[in-house]
Amino acid sequence: MLEFLRAGGPMLWLIIFFGLIGIYVFLEKFFQLRRNQVDVRELVTGLVNNLKRDSMIEAITLCDTTPGPVAKLLNAAIQAYQNEDDIKPAIEDIAKTELNRLESRLGILSTIANVAPLLGLLGTVVGMYHTFNGITVSSGMSVAALSGGVKEALITTAMGLCVAIPAHLAYNYLVTKVQSLCADMEKASSEILYFFAHRKEELKK
Length: 205
Prior knowledge:
Blueprint: H1 2-36, H2 40-52, H3 56-65, H4 69-82, H5 87-103, H6 106-138, H7 143-204
Helix pairs in contact: 1-6, 1-7, 2-3, 2-7, 3-4, 4-5, 4-7, 5-7, 6-7
């Protein structure tokens, strides 16, 4: 392994560094998004049942004890309703905040997926430079002059792709999860707005 790292040159260390950052970001976002996933239908149903009984405290407690952006969005809607504020802007503000939180650091994975192959290509260029420089110094195409630079070029190219491909797949996977949570937020917001609109009409009668 040490021989492999030495043969790859400085570009290999940089590629590995970016790969470790990518692993950290992916694991952090994976567990964050996993914690935020809830059964939206069950949450909204429980919330509506409490609100129909005018149990505002129980409804807010349910939102506080449920993780994720959907619960925070519903909590904001309930509090806006209690304060007789406009519910839709309150929901939109929370949705923007939560969306920014969900999308945070995803750009790092996208950047790594794009930069890693370029670092591998740069390592290839450096390796080929060392190869031709060795040929010039040894005044001929000896195996010793060729092997070091060619090995460096191949290792950095391969490692660049080995980092970029998983990073690209991880980015797309996390984006899909974020989009799923956004769809849940949209569904929950439409249902709670529908409930409060009809609730107000019932109270006026």
